[in-house]
Amino acid sequence: MNSLLSSTDLVIFFGSLIAVMGMGLWVGRKEDSSEDYFLAGRKTRWWGVAGSIFGSNVSANHIVGMMGVGFAVGFAQSHFEITAIAGLLMLCYFFLPVYRKLNIYTLSDYLSRRYDDRSRFSYALIMVIIMVVIQMVPGFYIGSRSINILLQGDTGRKAVAEAVVSEGGELSEIKILHGGEQYGSAPQVLINNQKVDFLKASLTNGQVSKVELTAPMPQAYLFAPMAIGFSGGNLENPEISPGDVDPLSYRLGILIMALVTGAYVIIGGLKAVIITDVIQSVLLLLAGLLVAFITFSQPEIGGWASLMARDLGAEGVERFHLYNASNHPDLPWTGVLSGLMILHFYYWGTNQFIVQRALSATTDKEAKMGIIAAGFFKLLIPFFSIGTGIAAYYLFKDRNLEVAQDAVFIKLMTELISPLGFGLVGLIAAGMIGAILSSLDSMMNSAATIMTFDLYKKYLNPEADDRKLIKMGRIWIIAFIVMAGLITIFTMDPNSKDSFFLKVAKHQGNLIAGVVVAFFLGMCWKRATAAGGVAAILAGVLFSYSIPALYAIFAQGNPALIDLFGEKLNFMHGAFVSALLSAVVHVVISLKTQPDEEKGKLTWIGLQIFSVHELSVFIKTLLFCLLIYATLATLVVLDTISPTIAAWIGSVWTFGCFYLSAAHKAKNAGVKIYREDRLWAGGLASCAIFMLFYFF
């Protein structure tokens, strides 16, 4: 095995795993109450909230996957990080004050109090599906695949070929586009992912040099589309292709991750999760920054400024732009400024496994400062991950290296990091696996919290004491680990080339549009009723799955619509339309049903989170800010001002708005302004606005 991990690397890597598991077991050794186990005793400091939120959010895909996206597509993927700041601030100042004032364990408890148990059950079901199937399964997949790639090292690359068809519809030639690397035996030729026996591949120096017809082509293939592929031929294992992950090692990786995370989460609860998340967040940041520093230090790159100048120069491909056309299949600008915001409001404001960290904070102020600090960490990802991918594009181009998108990270490790030694590969591997574990442990704990309180305590054993609640939580964690592990093994291909970051976001988007509407209208509109709430949640799922199909029907023979939004409706557009329609359903049904006056008090105004005047001032300020941002964007598009000038104007204006609010709060509280969290929130928001314009 051509492993990238030396003996020193292995010691650092496995030592980190053992240390993290040991720390989790030690800090969570005495969990006496359900509040200790599920909310860390509500004693988490701001740095614990920040580290746990960041660690719960990031994964190995933020290094490996986003680096590949930066390499192939560019900076547009950064929207997932930059616009997340809006969701974090929404949690900080709008959602979290409600949750903490009501002293809840689960967010479904808020829906139960504001609406009824139908909304509670619907939300709980959606969240468990998201956490266990949509989040944990890809987490196990990415984690096992990533660590196996590091352990096996560079095992080559699969060949690429295309079919040349004659006018008579027959296969006339197989054109080799790339012969692959490190083949040990001739691979099996595939057509449309099916093995065929009338084509045979030949090798020359470990590469596929030609593919020949060994028998007449069956009539079934006449005039049929033919996608040529290859299977097998790996030097170590002939059953898999060069560069592929061995299926047995893949399953073993899943088992190890399940055992490591399961051990400290089952025993230690949320306190163990938070402490280990902080450690793993530090490891991830060190790993990401280390890879970025070494890559940007290469003489071909010459630092960030030189890279940007080159990318925007004559030979550049302009990857440092955030905005794609509205009909872009993956990241349309209209989608990232509409539907992606719905996803952010769900993920950061109404998502159990993120919000639970803030609920565990000692005070409201500690919770807010932790959320804001996590936001600053989020803004580092575009630079050390996506930016490094762009740097890798030019680096490999200068060194005449042909590298596939999914192989960028491993090639950087092979070319730049591994030769340096000093255990650096082991440190980076520890950061990657730490990122995966910190996401998995958070989802295990939060899913168990929902099932324990919203199913077991609510319906099965309302009188359950702390001992029984903790026991039930541990049982659910074991069940979810087994379930997610088995689903991963039997359904996820360890050698898939799909972008799982976008795939996960798409599946989440199909489930959460109505959830966001139910929470938002429940907090801002006292007339919202229980029937309207559950109808919005269910309608959101229905709309999300039906709208793309309806769009496809309307798009047929409609070139204007296709030119505007593409042949297929992007999932972000779908999420936005679904949210709007769900809001209409909520309002209509609420107006036709009788409201509950007591439940109608569980709003921002009813709970005295805001006064009517404060809410009015905020809405007017927000609308005016959006008008300014739209004006600046228009001026940039018209080349009236440069993106840099727009970035400075937008960021200074944003910070000024927050500064005035912070100064007013600080004066009323009699404290220095730097102690007011809104000042730091203003710094975070202004940084995000600056990036949105600067990389226009």
Which key phrases capture this entry?
3 domains, three-stranded antiparallel sheet, two-stranded antiparallel sheet, 25 helices, globular
**Poorly predicted ranges (pLDDT <50, ≥5 residues)?**
none
Strand content: 5-15%
Per the CATH scheme, the topology name of the largest domain is: Sodium/glucose cotransporter
- Please state the overall shape, judged from the principal axes of the Cα atoms: globular
How are the strands ordered across the major sheet?
Answer: 4-3-7
Q: What's the overall average pLDDT, rounded?
A: 86
Q: Structural class from helices and strands?
A: mainly alpha
**Approximate helicity band:** 55-70%
Care to give the gist of this entry?
This protein is mostly helical and 696 residues long.
Question: How does this structure look, described?
Answer:
- The protein is mostly helical and 696 residues long.
- Helix 3 packs across helix 9.
- It contains 25 helices and seven strands.
- The longest helix is centred in the middle third of the chain and has 50 residues.
- Strands 4-3-7 form a three-stranded antiparallel β-sheet, with no helix packed on it. A two-stranded antiparallel sheet has the order 1-2.
- 65% of the residues lie in helices and 5% in strands.
Give the SSE layout.
Elements lengths: L6 H21 L6 H6 L6 H12 L6 H9 L6 H4 L1 H19 L4 H8 L2 H36 L7 E6 L5 E8 L9 E4 L2 E2 L3 E6 L2 E7 L14 E4 L15 H50 L7 H8 L21 H4 L2 H11 L2 H8 L4 H15 L2 H18 L9 H10 L6 H37 L5 H26 L8 H25 L5 H26 L3 H7 L5 H22 L19 H26 L5 H27 L7 H18 L2
Antiparallel strand pairs: 1-2, 3-4, 3-7, 5-6
Helix pairs in contact: 1-9, 1-17, 3-9, 3-13, 3-14, 3-17, 4-15, 6-12, 6-14, 7-8, 8-9, 8-17, 8-18, 8-19, 8-20, 9-15, 9-17, 9-18, 12-19, 12-22, 13-17, 14-25, 17-18, 19-20, 19-22, 20-22, 23-24, 24-25
